[in-house]
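Narrative of activities, Objective 1.

The group set out to show that a structural description can be obtained from nothing but a protein's sequence at a throughput compatible with the screening campaign. Below is one input-output pair from the validation batch, recorded exactly as produced.
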Amino acid sequence: MTGKVIQEKHSDDSCHSKFEVDCNYDARFASDVKSWIQFAVTKCVKDFKLYFRNSGDEDSYSIKNQSFYKCSHFTTLDIGYCLFQPKYVLAWKNLMKLTISDSILEDDLIPNIVSGSPLLPTFVLRDCCAYVIRILSPSVKRLEIHGHEADHLETLLEIVAPYITDLYISESLWIENISLNNVSSVVKAYLNFKFPQLCYKVKKPYAELILGEMIVDLQDAKEIEIGVRCYPILCRMAAKGYTLAPNVVGVDTSSMYYVDSDVDVSD
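Output recorded for this entry:
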């Protein structure tokens, strides 16, 4: 196992404000990971990062420490390449930001998380695999989705989030459809994604339809900012006579990316 461990202590040696583990992982080190999680819990860590790299599905670490799910000291959690156990009741009473990366999210996991995190305002998902993102807690105001994975090609991602005010969707979405249901509270949205599965000529119209429907679903938002990854889709829509809604901003039609082609771009 290679990587780094960062610790930040309070003046009281019994407590640590930050504990970060960022390393490569395989199943041989499961006992080490369990001890790190227990350390974070017993030392009252507030900012805990547990991020693994180069972990295949067969080596994904499943977090089974019940104390982890009931630790009220956590204010920031950043968990990557780990599997959660939705059967456990969560009690992250002071959690303010949660980031989950490269994980499979069962349908009942996210409702379990938000119900057990009454103060949580910011929820970030990076390259996770889920079919439904259901956030019914009024505390969650910002939802960020940075890429999305799927275990098969024809996948619909449904987002149900009636209380969020900020919606951020970016990077590669390995799905064939995305549905925004009950997002009428969104004030500002940022859309900067591409559909690698829909880049083939015969499927490009589907991408245009999806983006158009998302803009309609966000019609009550004050501002919808469109990033350059969406430019090829917008370019094709414009060629067919599509007119941008008045709340859509940030579109530069003179940009080199505003062409009917799929170009790799960075944020």
